[in-house]
Amino acid sequence: MYDLLKGLRVVEGSAFVAAPTCGLYLAQFGAEVIRFDNIGGGPDFRRWPLAENGASLYWEGLNKAKKSVALDLTRPQGREIAQALATAPGDEAGLFVTNFPVDGFLSYETLARRRPDLVCVRVMGWADGSQGMDYTINAALGLPLMTGPADDPRPVNHVLAAWDLLTGAYCAFSLVSALLARQREGRGREIRCPLSDIAAASMANMGFMAETMLSGHQRPRMGNDVYGAFGRDFLTRDGEKLMILAITPKQWSKALDALGVAGEVAAVEADLGLSFATDEGLRFTHRARLYPIFERAFAGRTAAELTPAFDAGGVTWGAYQPMEAALSDRRLYKDNPVFQPIAHPSGLTYPAPGAMGTIPQDERHPAAPAPRLGQHTDEVLSEVLGLDSGEIARLHDQGVIA
What we know:
alpha/beta
């Protein structure tokens, strides 16, 4: 946790991954993020993975450091409160993150009538307003047909919701950018961030679009080979699989030295009349000639012999390991200052991350847990909307808030 955004008040009306991720990142940099949900929880309140007591580890992971307000959003009074929160006054307020539909009681036009300088970032599925989620957008892009073994035509879905996470980060960037513009110009705006556009643009930025357009076909699947460079997993004598990557000339030369295969590779270069030293594309093109050399070198030594040599030589490598082993990896979880053990609303205590970036010049504050559903309802309605205790009590009695 850091205080870079201290003083900002962001209201979040959202569910699932992308929009809550946006609010999470803002909260971890110090913004006050107020999330409102339906009484009893929204559609993501009980999503898997679950703790043994039934609490959603997913929900308490994506909503750390936020405040929670519970409203009956099916009733006009509950919707009025949601609108009032999103458009509450303040120079550093009027910031709204949502994945609610473009039309309806949380449309930008409706909210802007209450606060014309409102900044709203809206996560969408498809840009035309039709429903889409990470896995369906990914399927449409063709990526599952590029992923997996070369000899198996079945599509392979990625287990990470990459487009959701990228969209959440882009939304946080967009909101802060629009706030800076509002401070200069005095006007608000809505920024619509469809997963389909984030994904399609990202594919174009990395050359996938142009490659397919110019060649007439998408990239073929090739197992664990790194496209356009020398990189793959290799099996050691004791059955360990290690990933090695050589993109730069230095990485390539270090790998040859550590494995003791420089002479064999030089023979291949002489036979082909070329040099692999500075051209990663050539290493990829002729990988079928190079792989057997590396396979023999890996097969002749154990992982315990290879990995110290790789580290000493500056080779870029990685070991395949299950999540259970990753938890003991000091560079990932164990002893990583990004994580601290905290008590969560599920009643469990386990490590949680604060801000993912590290600022050496600033003190890192402890990670903060997610709230209990509706934990801050009374506090927020009092402090943000100025309701007195009698009004709040009446709303409780009427079942509008909880």
